[in-house]
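Researcher: Here's the sequence for the chain we discussed earlier.
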Amino acid sequence: MEDDKRVKKRSGLLLISLLFCTFLQFLVELPQTQLEPKFIGFWSSIIKVEKNPTNHQTVSVSTGLSQKAETFEVAYKLFGIFPLKTDEVQVMSPLKLIPGGQSIGVTLQTKGVMVVGQAPVTDKTGKNLYPAKDAGIHVGDILLKIEGQEVRTDQEVSNAINLAGKQKGTVKVLFKHEDQILEKMVKPIFCAETGRYRMGLFVRDEAAGVGTLSFYDPVTNLYGALGHVITDADTNQKIEVYNGKIIGSTIYAIEKGKRGHPGEKIGSFIPNSAFSGTIEKNTMTGIFGRMSGRIENPFFKEAISVGWESEVKVGPAKIYTVIQGEKIEEFDVNIDRVMHNRTDSKNMIVRVTDQRLLEATGGIIQGMSGSPIVQNGKIIGAVTHVFVNDAHRGYGVFIQNMLNDSGNVGKKEAA
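Model: Thanks. This is the structure I predict for it:
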């Protein structure tokens, strides 16, 4: 009898110990970052959760775009009476942007001066020579310094070469070749035709063109545009930005796209543009900077949520762009294919289905790059390239990739 009582007592103590250990483990594993934790079974009947807002603020995500954040104190109580644990949880609102669609004029000054071609220099005997090429300077290289002085314009390059030729007969050139910084001595030739010493190069210090604004954050004034990198027209090399700006542009003609010819918007810059912006980055997925002035899209009076890569689906969508004057218009497209494994500016295939746009432009044309793509009420990307052999179709870039390249949103926030 005594033994039975001892056994029952031990069993009871063991059960209580197991329950206590389980309870302690449960306390350790209580959710730490959930505003609405879910409990199941037995625990749901004895653990009560109370949440109280403590703070509202606007925060900057990775020092870039703004999101609203609300902080809550989450308290876990046994039977709703005895406090077990208290956590502080910050809840981020969805990232929101205003879709663009505005036609923009882009001017960009290179960091250094780009070599875009070789030009023979005729010496006094009538012989054609290529001094820079012979010294190892190639098309696509960036001239950084001549005789120790930085050069930023084609005129500065020309003057520095002529002066060094007169004074020394040689020119010390610092330049960037692919990812290497090199220095070479070049022997310039006196050109009788121009009366100046020359190295035999064609150079360019800036680029200009027309594109489309992709998005704008009205809180931080940050913007993204184009959806693809700006390259030099002759070398196809990425242009390293020294200085640049965007302003409004007006479209006065359309060259329709057709098989083998992509077509283009023909526009001009607006001298007294309602807005302007800096160009701080030229990346694989577009240009980025800060905007000032009045930015308006008649279809979006307020910012809309960003649609991340995982939310992009095959199916209908809308694009916003200008095909006449400065008026932003809405057109129907279809996302034919989504390519999740690509990290460049070709993440989806976009097909124009809007008959009015097909009649006006033939489909996707140059200058339409950057036109925002909206699907299910969220901005998911921007138009980037046209298919040369099928103007009805083109590529689009994920807005997520643009934000990542801009340095404004880290991959964790964009998951």
